[in-house]
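Input record (one chain):
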Amino acid sequence: MKTLSSLERTILECLDTKEKGFYDILLQTGLKEHVCQNLLQSLIFRGLIKTNGKTYEIKQGISPIVLNELNGFDAKQAESLEMIEAIIQCQSNRVFKFKKIALDSKDEKIFLALLSNLETFLSDVHKRNVKQMPIKKRKIIFWGMGEIEQLLNQMTAGA
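The corresponding structure, as predicted from the sequence alone:
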């Protein structure tokens, strides 16, 4: 089974807590009707969700091997790349900053401590708001850090 697209993952997130009807899924995700219908059919075909004709829910008893494949490192990396690309291409309602920074070891430790605080804050606000906020209104937030020399060598190794 190949990895899931971000669109398919959004449908599964929507169904995570309980079964939902088609229009509830549309309201939660903000997807267009035809896109949502195609995604639901694909997820049914792949054996990840089921329907009774009125509602959809995540299928129980999905094999641990399949779950690991769908939620493993490669799957998360593919989703991250897909979302980052979408954010970069988005022309409105986005915040995107990219900076090359000279950090000495002391400043890097301070930066990592600030990131730890940010992660705690984001985790807390997500827990507080997740139940009442539709998926379509949630935000994608990402950050990362790497040493330029290592990243450049990684890029050229694949060429």
